[in-house]
């Protein structure tokens, strides 16, 4: 009864809270699952995962020069180069034990579920931290953010490809949430799952380590070790690590040299600077400056804002691709909370976010190659905006947001 009363009381806001994510989910199904207006790329990454799992089942390392396992080749599909770390191997073997059609279905369902979990967790984070600050948020604001996450073209692209970025995003935000709620074992397990793309779990893991979240970090390490056990038994501890490094080297070779056009799909300050014929060494002091400011003003940052900044930093300064922009879901929630009392800033942030979502082929068609990496400066602007708002608020009235729930 009380729950129903609250929904009636919120009225229009409650309707928006239901309608927007529902409409976004329809877009996700149309463009991510069915593939409306798409002509290529279906299950591209599923082929990589499935092919790697097939090699593992044969007792052969999938790392190195691209090669296709018989199980994949027999159905007329070719495998792309593989570079995930060893602790993903148990999941891949389970995936490859299915038919390819079922494996693709599993990845679609898993990614859609991860997308919904990611949207839910960010919305939950927003509500919890708004209450903690003494300014509860209206239901429509988390609904708008959830709709942006679910309906994002990057989300649809990940689902269509069968990539793992949504799974990583959901695991990362889940780890941060459960650490906040003082449930370190669950947080550590989720952090370990997020580390299948190590560059995105690296900074959150180091941050938790510097905050002395020993149980969370120890559980994450133990989980990675447990998941890697099968690979280590199969190939040996030193050889497992060596094979993975070899896989990373071959991946870079294939992407950067054999397929130059693949560079368009990359993100990061380094590729942006290189496109402007500026040495990417400039990115190092810029990145260090951002991390220094984050640590200096950490007591003024909420847990969501810390994670948002670390994810944005990883996308900007560590190896990433356009589809990895799904990891900016926490940034959307953090900026929505920070700008909710300033309509002009809110519209600026929203416009910048929507600008990042423009299809690359349309931008290249109308603006040409100079704007290939336009998303990088836009994301850098949003990150600096969040930091500037934090510093301004800290100067006015420092609030120890970053303390986890006691």
TrEMBL record:
<feature type="transmembrane region" description="Helical">
    <location>
        <begin position="306"/>
        <end position="333"/>
    </location>
</feature>
<dbReference type="GO" id="GO:0005886">
    <property type="term" value="C:plasma membrane"/>
</dbReference>
<feature type="transmembrane region" description="Helical">
    <location>
        <begin position="101"/>
        <end position="125"/>
    </location>
</feature>
<feature type="transmembrane region" description="Helical">
    <location>
        <begin position="16"/>
        <end position="37"/>
    </location>
</feature>
<keyword id="KW-0808">Transferase</keyword>
<keyword id="KW-0472">Membrane</keyword>
<feature type="transmembrane region" description="Helical">
    <location>
        <begin position="345"/>
        <end position="367"/>
    </location>
</feature>
<feature type="transmembrane region" description="Helical">
    <location>
        <begin position="160"/>
        <end position="178"/>
    </location>
</feature>
<keyword id="KW-1003">Cell membrane</keyword>
<dbReference type="Pfam" id="PF09594">
    <property type="entry name" value="GT87"/>
</dbReference>
<feature type="transmembrane region" description="Helical">
    <location>
        <begin position="271"/>
        <end position="294"/>
    </location>
</feature>
<dbReference type="InterPro" id="IPR018584">
    <property type="entry name" value="GT87"/>
</dbReference>
<dbReference type="GO" id="GO:0016758">
    <property type="term" value="F:hexosyltransferase activity"/>
</dbReference>
<feature type="transmembrane region" description="Helical">
    <location>
        <begin position="185"/>
        <end position="208"/>
    </location>
</feature>
<keyword id="KW-0812">Transmembrane</keyword>
<feature type="transmembrane region" description="Helical">
    <location>
        <begin position="373"/>
        <end position="395"/>
    </location>
</feature>
<comment type="similarity">
    <text>Belongs to the glycosyltransferase 87 family.</text>
</comment>
<feature type="transmembrane region" description="Helical">
    <location>
        <begin position="214"/>
        <end position="233"/>
    </location>
</feature>
<keyword id="KW-1133">Transmembrane helix</keyword>
<protein>
    <submittedName>
        <fullName>DUF2029 domain-containing protein</fullName>
    </submittedName>
</protein>
């Amino acid at each position: 009864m009380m729950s129903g009363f609250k929904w009636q009381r919120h009225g229009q806001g409650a309707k928006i809270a239901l309608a927007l994510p529902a409409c976004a989910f329809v877009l996700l199904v149309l463009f991510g699952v069915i593939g409306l207006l798409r002509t290529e790329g279906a299950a591209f990454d599923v082929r990589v995962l499935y092919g790697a799992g097939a090699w593992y089942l044969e007792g052969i390392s999938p790392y190195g020069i691209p090669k296709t396992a018989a199980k994949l080749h027999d159905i007329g599909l070719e495998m792309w180069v593989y570079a995930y770390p060893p602790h993903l191997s148990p999941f891949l073997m389970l995936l490859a034990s299915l038919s390819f059609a079922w494996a693709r279905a599993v990845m679609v369902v898993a990614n859609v579920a991860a997308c919904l979990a990611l949207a839910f967790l960010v919305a939950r984070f927003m509500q919890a931290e708004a209450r903690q600050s003494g300014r509860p948020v209206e239901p429509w604001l988390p609904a708008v953010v959830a709709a942006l996450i679910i309906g994002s073209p990057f989300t649809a692209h990940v689902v269509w490809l069968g990539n793992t970025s949504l799974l990583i995003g959901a695991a990362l935000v889940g780890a941060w949430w459960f650490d906040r709620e003082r449930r370190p074992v669950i947080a550590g397990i989720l952090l370990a799952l997020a580390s299948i793309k190590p560059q995105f779990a690296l900074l959150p893991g180091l941050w938790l380590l510097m905050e002395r979240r020993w149980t969370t970090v120890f559980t994450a390490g133990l989980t990675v070790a447990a998941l890697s056990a099968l690979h280590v038994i199969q190939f040996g501890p030193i050889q497992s690590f060596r094979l993975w490094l070899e896989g990373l080297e071959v991946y870079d070779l294939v992407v950067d040299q054999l397929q130059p056009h693949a560079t368009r799909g990359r993100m990061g300050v380094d590729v942006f600077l290189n496109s402007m014929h500026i040495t990417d060494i400039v990115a190092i002091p810029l990145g260090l400056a951002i991390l220094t400011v984050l640590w200096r003003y950490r007591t003024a940052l909420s847990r969501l804002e810390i994670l948002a900044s670390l994810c944005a930093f990883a996308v900007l300064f560590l190896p990433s691709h356009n589809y990895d922009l799904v990891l900016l879901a926490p940034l959307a929630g953090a900026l929505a909370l920070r700008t909710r009392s300033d309509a002009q800033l809110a519209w600026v942030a929203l416009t910048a976010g929507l600008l990042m979502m423009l299809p690359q082929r349309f931008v290249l068609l109308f603006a040409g190659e100079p704007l290939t990496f336009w998303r990088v400066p836009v994301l850098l602007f949003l990150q600096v905006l969040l930091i500037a708002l934090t510093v301004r608020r800290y100067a006015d009235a420092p609030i120890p947001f970053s303390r986890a729930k006691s």
